[in-house]
Amino acid sequence: MRSTASILHLDLDAFFAAVEQRDKPSLRGKPVIVGGTGGRGVVSTASYEAREFGVGSAMSGREARARCPHAAFLSGRFHAYRDTSKRVMQVLRELSPLVEPLSLDEAFVDLAAADLPDLEVATVTAAGAELRRRVQEVTGGLTATVGIASSKFLAKVASELDKPDGMTVVAPGTELDLLRPMKVKVIPGVGPATAERLRRAGIHTVADLEAVAEGELVRLLGQAQGHGLWQLARAQDSRPVVSEREAKSISVEGTYDSDLTDRKLMEGLLSRQAREVGTRMRKNGFSGRTVTIKVRLYDFTTLNRSSTLTSPTDDGATIARIARSLLADLDTTGGVRLLGVGVSGLADWVQEDLFGETAEDEEAEVVLPEPPRRTWPPGADVVHDEMGAGWVWGSGSGVVTVRFETADTPPGPVRSFRIDDPALHRWEPPAEE
């Protein structure tokens, strides 16, 4: 923990949904849910209007529809989210060279590396206010909530206190006053299982946790977690802001519309994922030693199996062979809804000829059925030769319905077309060079 409130945490408010509301004027002020459009979809982001009905991230699309049936359910436009995120991260880097992105919508900023006259509370508060103004300016109206404190832990906690569109600055010396009344789940790593174990021990708040001896916490939760919680309950967190976050693993996974039962098909899917993992590793200059497969069964049971090589590899064929061998030990007769392959233990070198003459994957290629492409997913950008730009409101029975509006227009008219209307086109962003 620092002696100054010099670590800033920025969190864009309901980011994906906010971008959709920005670009679709008719949805402003209304419940918007990104994700959950398919039978097995889950909610990625819900607008604050949808959250009033109890909709939240990671909720199944089925439950979200039951709670808020009048919401706009959109499939998501990641090109728009990436573009907006880039603008925000650029603003952060203009403030300080030390920026640690956590995701598209969240980052830490080290204000000690910023060009500020001092790190007094008034100075960092003004810097935070100006940052929020700049974010709103470059994103076309999106809001962000900011927390500023003496550590990463406290800054992130602070950014949750005044959502949306707010800011909390924790003055040095007041950290424990802020933390003590809070529930223990405010501490990173305290999930439902840990919270229940603490509850059974009579520990409900951070103040309760602070009163427990370190040895007792270690006995209750294990060495690593017990020691970590003992420190955070005392606001002890010395982690620096790291501008380049080291990748710990590279993985690819897919969820399927119907349960997979064909073993050859599963092996083929794993092989294709493994080749993609290998390609991404080579592109980023990585190799790895531990190959892991993730298998989610028909009943949502999730299985993980791993195998560690003696030397790192980036060869997709090698990764595929190991992934298939791991699958062979699992009972998948009831059906599989998700498959994934990952490699961890990353290094920046490769052991040549790890398997001698077997670098090529000699498995017969499985002909994999392509998942049906939803030509007109809800929320997708389209252009009509006469009506101009708009977005897909819905589709079905050979018809696609479009609302013609953009971020810079008032709410626009709604028109329906045949799905094969030659005047209607999906709009895709130009390919990045």
Automatic annotation (TrEMBL):
Gene Ontology MF annotations: DNA-directed DNA polymerase activity
Catalytic activity as recorded in UniProt: DNA(n) + a 2'-deoxyribonucleoside 5'-triphosphate = DNA(n+1) + diphosphate
Listed cofactors: Mg(2+)
Keyword Nucleotidyltransferase: yes
Domain of life: Bacteria
Subunit record text: Monomer.
Entry protein name: DNA polymerase IV
SUPFAM superfamilies tied to this protein: DNA/RNA polymerases, Lesion bypass DNA polymerase (Y-family), little finger domain
Family in the record: Belongs to the DNA polymerase type-Y family.
Gene that specifies this protein: dinB
Active site residues of this protein: E106
